[in-house]
Design a protein that fits this description.
This protein is α+β, with helices and mostly antiparallel strands and 246 residues long. It is built from two helices and 17 strands. It folds into three domains: 120 residues, Macroglobulin (MG2) domain (Immunoglobulin-like), CATH 2.60.40; 80 residues, Immunoglobulins (Immunoglobulin-like); 25 residues. The strands form four sheets. Strands 1, 4, 6, 7, 9 and 10 form a six-stranded mixed β-sheet that branches. The protein has a four-stranded antiparallel β-sheet with strand order 2-3-5-8, with no helix packed on it. A four-stranded antiparallel β-sheet has the order 13-12-15-17, with no helix packed on it. The longest helix is centred in the C-terminal third of the chain and has 28 residues. The chain starts with a helix and ends in a 7-residue tail after the last helix.
């Protein structure tokens, strides 16, 4: 499935591979994220400079596993020289998406083709959360709550908080599948007045079922109890066995 967008681009014309979040080729600019969460709905924008009489856009989504993704069928839009938006829903599994765009532009009875392929990583996410408290009577707007994992900045959320209130703030960290270990989470807010409650905590990632060891212990205890009962029963029956006389 990886070769689908490249084959399409090669058949139509020479492909242009876009690896960055924003890519410009001649009069065409493609803008959108290069990493998204599983199941997330996001937009890609195609902007064409106003040098043509008119244009058309073809959009094709492909990848290894498109379970839950949309749109599955090709999309077609006629250009009006304003940004054209394509709404995309990521699959429900981790995978790599290939977004193929072809702009067919017309100018003075000539046709121009612009072929661009964007790559988007679809990743598992981990919810980071913290509480923010405003001890004043004033409303604070556009506060930035930043999150750090093991001391490294991973993202932020903007909030508005009323006076004398506490808000729960969450952030979807595109973590992918986490390796086993302990992850130190820290949150900071860009205010000397508004306070973070529980701004530091740990996430413990373990391999397999963390309760499996306890399950084995319980099973061993049950088996030992059954064995003891069987032995005691055998001894009791032997002692109380009737003696036959000739």
């Amino acid at each position: 499935m990886r070769v689908i967008p490249f084959l399409l681009a090669f058949i139509l014309l020479v492909p242009v591979l876009a690896l960055a979040e924003t890519y410009t080729y001649g009069p065409v600019t493609i803008t959108g994220p290069d990493k998204v969460a599983i199941g997330e709905t996001f937009n890609y924008t195609v902007n064409v400079q106003q040098i043509f009489n008119h244009y058309k856009i073809v959009f094709v989504l492909s990848g290894y596993n498109l379970t839950g993704a949309s749109p599955i069928s090709p999309q077609y839009l006629n250009g009006t020289f304003s940004p054209q938006n394509f709404t995309i829903t990521a699959p429900s599994v981790q995978t790599t998406l290939y977004l193929f765009f072809q702009v067919i532009a017309y100018l003075n009875n000539q046709i121009f083709y612009y072929n661009i392929t964007e790559t988007v990583q679809v990743l598992n996410y981990t919810i980071l959360k913290v509480k923010v408290y405003n001890p004043t009577n004033f409303i604070f707007k556009d506060l930035n709550v930043s999150f750090y994992v093991n001391g490294k900045y991973v993202g932020s959320s903007e909030i508005n908080i009323s006076g004398n209130t506490t808000e729960n703030v969450t952030y979807k960290w595109l973590s992918g599948t986490l390796s086993p270990g302990i992850y130190n989470i820290q949150a900071k807010v860009n205010s000397t007045v508004v306070k973070i409650i529980g701004g530091k905590y740990n996430i413990d990632i373990q391999v397999g079922n963390p309760f499996l060891e306890y399950i084995y212990i319980i099973i061993a205890i049950i088996l030992a109890m059954i064995l003891v009962i069987v032995v005691i029963t055998a001894i009791y029956n032997r002692r109380n066995k009737p003696k036959w006389k000739k």
